[in-house]
Amino acid sequence: MKRVSYVTVRKRLVFTLITGVCLFLIMIGRLWYVQVVMGDDISEKAEESWGRNIPFEAQRGEILDRNGDILATNVTAPSILVAPRQIKDPVADSEKLASVLSITTEKAYEKLTKNESIVRINPEGRKVTNEIANEVRSLQLEGIYVAEDYRRHYPRGNYLSHVLGFAGIDNQGLTGLELYYDELLKGESGHVSFYSDAKGRRMPDLADRYTPPTDGQHMKLTVDAKVQTILERELDEAEAVYNPDGAIAIAMDPNNGEILGMSSRPDYDPEKFQDVPAEIYNQNKPIWSTYEPGSTFKIITLAAALEEQLVDLEKDNFYDPGYIEVSGQKLKCWKKGGHGSQTFLEVVQNSCNPGFVVLGERLGEKKLFEYITNFGFGQETGIDLQGEGTGILFKPEAIGPLELATTAFGQGVSVTPIQQVAAVAAAINGGNLYQPYLAKEFIDPLTNEITIKNDSLMKRNVISQETSDEIRHALEHVVAKGTGRGAFVDGYRIGGKTGTAQKAKDGKYLENNHIVSFIGFAPADEPEIVVYVAIDNPKETVQFGGVVAAPIVGNIIEDALIAMGVPKRSDQIEKETTWTDTPIVEVPDLIGRTVRDIHESYYDLKLEVDGDGDEVVLQSPEPGVRIEAGSTIRVYMGDKTTEEQ
Question: How far apart are CA 517 and CA 249, in angstroms?
Fold first, then answer.
C-alpha cells in the first residue's frame, strides 16, 4: 500500500484552506455587491411586486390674465379605484357600489373580480362629485379606494374658449394653450403606496408611504380680461344683430406683439366641448382661417409705395372714372361712376381700387411681393397656438399684370387674420414686425416666483419711422373723412381701414356673401392698441366693412382705451359728417344759471333736473366735454350762496 507523505497532506490542506477562503471571500463580495450596489434596484423590484399605488393627480397650473384674474383653474373631482384581491365579498360589495355609482351590479361585479392589482371604474367612477365620493367612503368597503383627482374648470364659460382650449379627463391638454404648453401646465402625479402579500391582500403592519404630486406651473397671459370682455360683448351683439356665418376679433399691443384679446364665433364652453362638433372647437378662426383680405390689405401696398417714394399723398393726383383696364379687363371701383379727380390721400380715404392698382404698377411685381413677404404674409407668424395657417400668395411664375393689379387692392391672395394684425401693427409702430404671443410668464405654484418669462420678439424692420408716420396720418383720415367713419370716436384719434372681401366657392365668387372687416388702431399719434374685426356674411344689411365692422371696432377701441387708462386727445381731425351722422356738440357751462335761462338758450341737448333751488350748482357731463346732439345733461339745483358757505 502506497503511503502518502506528510508534506503532500500538508499541501492538500493548505490548498483546500486557500480555496475555501477564496470561495468565502467571493461569497462575501457577492453579498456586498447585492446588498450595497444592487440593493436599491432589488428593493424597487421587491416593492413593485408587493407594493400597490393609489394615484394622486397633480393640479394643472392655473391660467391667468395679465392682471392675475383666473381664466382656468381646477376643482376636486375624486375617482373610485378597486383593489380586487382585497375584496372579501364581491357579490355584496358590487351591489352596494353599483347603487352609489348608478351602474349595473354586473359591471360592478366584473370590476371587483378582475385579475388586476388596481382597477378603475370608467367612466362612472372617474372624476365624480364630492357627494358621490363621500357616499363611497361611507360604505367602508375594504379594497375600494377614493383617489384625489381634479377636473379642469373654466369659470367664465365660453370666454376666450378657442385660445384657452381644454384639458381631457386624463389631465392632458387637448387644444389651445392647454395643449401648446401642456408640459409646463400638467405637473407630475403622486401616489400613496401600501404593501400587500402574494395574494394581493393588504399587509396591516406596514405603514403607507405618500409621494406628493408636483403641481404644474401657473401661466400668466398677455391677455387683458377687461379688453377680452369688450371683444366678447361686441361679438355677441354682432351675432344677435347680423346672424353671421362666423365672426372674429383680435386686439394686440402694436409695440410688442402682446395679444390683449382674441375671440371668434361660433364659440363653446370648454367644459362641455363634447356637446359641439369638432370643427367648432378645433377651428381657432383668428389664426386658422384664410381668405381674401380685401381693402385692409391696401395698407401694405400703401406702405411699400411710400417707403419707395413712389407717391406723394398730398401732391400727386389720380382721376378715377370708376374702373381701370388691365390686360384687357376692367377692374371696377366700388363706387359706380368712380370718385373723379382726387389726391392719393383721398384715394386712401375712399378706398379706391383703381388708385391702388396704379400704386401696384409703380412698385412692380418684384418690389410689391418683396414687401408683402417682409410684412409676414405667406408664412406663420409664430404665435404660440397650434394650427396656424400660412395663407396663399401667387407663385412668382404665375404673376402677370392682372395678378399684380388685384393683389395691390387685396384680391386673389389669401391671408390669416393674425397675419393682418401683425403686419398693420408693423406699419403703424415705426416699422417693426413683432411675433404675436400669448404666454407672458410662468410662475412656480409654491414659491410664486417667475420661472420663465417670455419677452417680445422683433423679427425685422420693414419700413422707416417716416413712412409709418405717413401711414398713420393717412389712416386717421380714412376714419375721419373716408370709408371708416363708422369707427370714429370723439376724443380718441383712431386710424384704420375697411375691408370687404368676396368669398369664393368652386372657383367662382359668391353673390351677396362677403367677409366684411375693419382694422383700426389708436391713439393715432402713439398707438397702444390695434383691433381687427371680421364678420362673415352678415344678414339683413349692406355688406360693407365700413357699415358693419367699423362701428364695432370703434366701440371696442373706445371702451378698451378707457379700461386701459389712456387719456383722450384734443388735436383730432374733425369728422366729415353725412346726413346719417349725429352732430357732436360741446357741453356748455350751466353753473349758476336757472332752468328757464337754459331752456331759452335752445341747446340741442336734453335736461334732467334734480334738487331744490334756483341755480345750477352741479352738472354732468362737465363743461367742454363733447357729446352727441340730443344727449342728456343732468343738473343739480341749489342756492349757490348757501352752497359756498
Answer: 10
Element (H, E) at 414: none
For residue 33, the surrounding DSSP H or E stretch is: none
C-alpha cell at 290: 384664410
List beta partners, residue 532. 250, 519
CB-based contacts of 545, cutoff 8 Å, min separation 6: 294, 295, 296, 483, 498, 499, 500, 516, 517, 518
CATH number at residue 199: 3.90.1310.10
Query: CATH number, domain at 521?
Result: 3.40.710.10
Other residues' Cβ atoms within 10 Å of the Cβ of residue 387: 14
Instruction: Return the percentage of the chain with pLDDT > 90, whole number.
Output: 58
Report the CATH number at residue 631.
Answer: 3.30.10.20
Asked if 456 and 524 sit in the same domain, the reply is: yes
> Could you tell me if residue 122 is left (phi over 0), alpha (psi between -120 and 50 degrees) or otherwise beta?
beta
Q: Which residues pair with 626 in a beta bridge?
A: 586
Can you say whether the dihedral through the CA atoms of 35, 37, 39, 41 is positive or negative? Answer: negative
Domain coverage including residue 536: 225-563
For residue 534, give the nearest of 498, 506, 576, 565 by alpha carbon: 498
Higher pLDDT, 334 or 270: 270
Non-local (6+) Cβ contacts of 471 within 8 A are 299, 302, 303, 306, 427, 428, 463
The whole-angstrom separation of Cα 452 and Cα 443 is 7
CA-wise closest residue to 464 among 429, 498, 493, 495: 429
The cell for 325 is 383696364
Residue 174 lies in a domain: no
Give the closest residue to 340 by CA, choosing from 323, 315, 361: 323
579 inside domain:
no
Q: Tell me what pLDDT residue 53 has.
A: 60
Rg (C-alpha) for the chain, rounded Å, is 36
- Find the helix packing angle between 90-101 and 105-112, rounded to 10°: 130
Amino acid in position 165: G
DSSP H or E segment with residue 638: strand 632-638
- Closest CA relative to residue 320, chosen from 304, 340, 303: 340
DSSP string, 483-507: TTGGG-BTTB--EEEEEEEEEEETT
Rounded distance, CA 54 to CA 79, Å? Answer: 10
**Is residue 72 within 8 Å of residue 164, measured between CB atoms?**
yes
> Which residues contact residue 152 at a Cβ distance below 8 angstroms, ignoring those fewer than 6 apart?
60, 72, 73, 74, 166, 167, 171, 178, 270, 271
**Strands, DSSP E only, in 470-620?**
495-505, 508-522, 529-536, 584-586, 606-610, 615-620
Q: Tell me the average pLDDT across 617-627.
A: 88
Report, as residue numbers or ranges, the catalytic residues.
295
Residue 179 and residue 176: Cα distance in Å, rounded? 6
pLDDT in tens, 519-570: 999 999 999 999 999 999 999 998 899 999 999 999 999 999 999 999 988 7
